[in-house]
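Lecture 7 notes. Example A: sequence first, then its structure tokens.
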Amino acid sequence: MSRSACLNSVLSIVDDTLKIKRDKQLRLLNSSSRINRYKFVVNLALVTLGIRGSYLIDTFVVEEPESAFIIILEALNKAAPTIFSALRVAYESESGQCFLLNRSVLATNATKWYNGTCVLLTDEPSVMELPPTLLRTVQDLLQYFEDSSHSIYRFPPNLGRQILIPLAGVLLEYPVAYMPTSDEQTIFLPGVALDVYHCTLSLECAHDLKKAALPNTIAEHSLLRFSCPVCVGESNKPLSPSSIERQVGGLFRDRLSLLEDKWTLKMSHEIVTLDRVAL
């Protein structure tokens, strides 16, 4: 990210570029609600600038993701090639998961992942190292994007939930990823007390898109929301609330410090117990 990066300028480019695209593959994006379109545009801009390493698209279903994002990436790079040069897309066809990625941030995170941890989702959750099969999947992704001409990556078929669930946590930069005990496991952390964290960003200088989507409000934009079992945080100091809040808050403050925009970052923490956790 350049030292003089301006999020509102990037928002303007993204919004103006998508407004003029009428390709059938972008029908669901262009017809989605104002708030969902706003979230997508903001997250795309945050990934572009390296504030977020990646974003899992969850505001609308992407039809024909490969052709849709070829259209989007080509249009953005035509509008401002130096700004969007690190933007990439990865998707998994069976689950429908589609990620916007920053290639530079991915490369920076590579070493950190090899020392990463995940939580095995047994009746008594426990910490384990990231498994070799998951690390190989991430390594394949990184190697593919080492070629700057590659902009869209399709994950191999039949990865299974034991890879896909922690893979999302790794790409989204969660301090800890969840690992099912098997591909067949469907109930996760029932009745387990969780430390739930939410990191939000507010911009004082809002782009016109925000005013149109959220009239008369100054909304906080969600950067990261994740959880960790309380028992894990109690027995592993690096995963304790104080350590996680310091780690995540420091990560985003360092990245946001390069923006020209005025911003406010908030990190909240609460303890929650659910019947089950959706993954």
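Example B, a different protein, same format:
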Amino acid sequence: MKALPTRRANALVLALWCALLLTPLLVHLFRPPHEAPLENRTLAPAPGWPGTLDEVSTWPARMQAWMRDHFGLRGELLEASHRWRHQVFGDFLSADLVPGQAGEVFHNVFGDIPGNALRVMCGAERIELPVVGQRVAELLAATHADLPRSYLMMVPDKSRLRPRLLPRWLQEECAGGQPPAESLVDRLAQKPETAGRLFYPIDAMRQVDGVDPVYRPWNLHWDFHGAAVAADWLAQGQWGLSRRYDVALEPRETEFDLRALAPGVARRDTTLVPVYPDGRVLVCHNDAACFPEFAAEAALLFQVARVRSAWQLPAGQRRPTLVIIGDSFGDNITEPLARYFAEVWYLSMNHLSRLSPAQRRHVRSVVIDQFRPDVLLHVYNEGTVLADQARYLARVRELLEPVPTQ
């Protein structure tokens, strides 16, 4: 008689375990299509039926990868784990996000491996400046023959503007280091082929950041206001240009700008965004329709923009023009710089690997040979330039180099 409760308890435990194991499968099979949480990587695609012997041999591994990325409740569990970790411990599962003091969040490209961006930028980890300088020089040389006015701007990272808000352990590591960005600028300023072509507006941004922050505490990129500081410094102070028009700014609530690194962690902030009510300025962002000249390639690059303020004028009067090639920091400086140009193009290189060799040649032909901008500006976060472990600059250079003639 006493075994009955134990038998019932065992049956209950067995039922609970079966439910726990079967729930993800049932959700996977019967839940309607839904939007998965944004992640900082491409999820494995469904393998499909194998058509060759090679595909047969790799099909189990591809199916396993797909199941691992798409099993039922995976998105909910992923968001819950990120949210729980941040709420309980105040940090992030991703090593690319570093919580600082006073509510600041910093972006640590390459995470916790040697040569990560935060340690390189502050000087805690030394780099070979001659090698970095050579990369920059080769990148600028790739278009110099076709576009003599080719420049590069290193965007000062938030960690360089607010080193006092880095976590204490990182401040201790950086204490004895010499930040390399200024040394790189000085080095290239002494070479005739790169003198006056590398910009680093850290002093201008520091001056403004002390009064009106150019980075929001949780945002890892600059907004229009922050980018406008560098745009005005560059266009007016270095190039001697005057604004063609001004824009009104209105407050808007925006989400944390790198949610893909922390799915489930919600954070909103108020920032100022430009508004164009009269239709005189045409603005297009992240749409293949922005560039009918290479729509297929623009769709693959994804992060693209085009701003036109002289579209109503004859073609010969639509000058000067600017093309911005860069990482994600080039996006928000497009509209501030567009106030000085008749037309501005922005192409992100973050997804350059999606383009085939033929598509890369087509993009170069349209941008360099056909559009022929008056100015070509590379815009990269200083960490992209200094801690270039992924050969980012080399891949951009290969895109822009002239195609050899047969």
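Note on Example B: The two ends are 93 Å apart (CA to CA). The mean pLDDT is 86.
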